[in-house]
Amino acid sequence: MIRLDETLLLEYAGGLAGLLTETVNGGASVGFLAPLGRAEALAWWEQRAADVAAGRLAVWAAHDGHRVLGTVSLAFPDKANSRHRAELVKLMVRPDARGRGLGRRLLATAEDAAASAGVTLLHLDTETGSPAERLYRSAGWTPIGAIPDYAASPAGELRPTTIYYKQVPAGTLTR
Question: What gap in Å lies between CA 156 and CA 149, rounded to an integer?
Fold first, then answer.
């Protein structure tokens, strides 16, 4: 697992774009419609570099030396009264790398980094009924409810989204 600074994000952008297109085109709802092309996915990742440089986004990638196998990010709010929380975003694992605990390790990496940064509350949203829900529930995340027709699936169908939160150990705010 490697945390990507702005330079590394740009170096890994091609692998991250491949992961994103494979994830979306495989039916996972991560904010894009299918078919997602490589150029669009690459541009999206490259645009995240400014947020990483500014400290608004932290990105981790898991790789096997040849390709990116998974990623997770934390998005930090820019408001002074929100510095104690972050949103977990874009947790993705390549289909051929699933079932080996990589998603759980990515999740734990983000949770540990959040606690180290003084973040005491994490939140996320995920498609209701998706395989991701099983991971979040088993990792101690608490569902607070579902919003009907919140986001379109990659196929364009409106689907419900469940909101989760997790409190992490208190620390000193370092951001």
Answer: 11
Residue 156's pLDDT is what?
Answer: 96
Say how far apart CA 109 and CA 152 lie, in whole Å. 28
Q: Which two tokens stand for residue 7?
A: 């330079």
Residue 104, token pair as written in the block:
């759980």
- Distance separating alpha carbons of residues 12 and 69, to the nearest angstrom: 11
Dig out the tokens for 121 from the structure: 């509350």
What CA–CA distance (Å, rounded) separates 74 from 33?
Answer: 22
- Say whether pLDDT at 129 is over 80: yes
Contact 174, 118 (CB under 8 A): yes
Residue 71, Cα to own-chain centre: how many angstroms? 7
pLDDT the model gives residue 149: 98
Cis peptide bond N-terminal to 131, omega within 30: no
Structural domains in the chain, CATH included, are 2-167 (3.40.630.30)
- pLDDT tens digits, one per residue of 64-110: 999 999 999 999 999 999 999 999 999 999 999 999 999 999 999 99
Q: Strand pairing partners for 126?
A: 162
SS3 content of the chain, % helix, strand, coil (to 5): 40, 30, 30
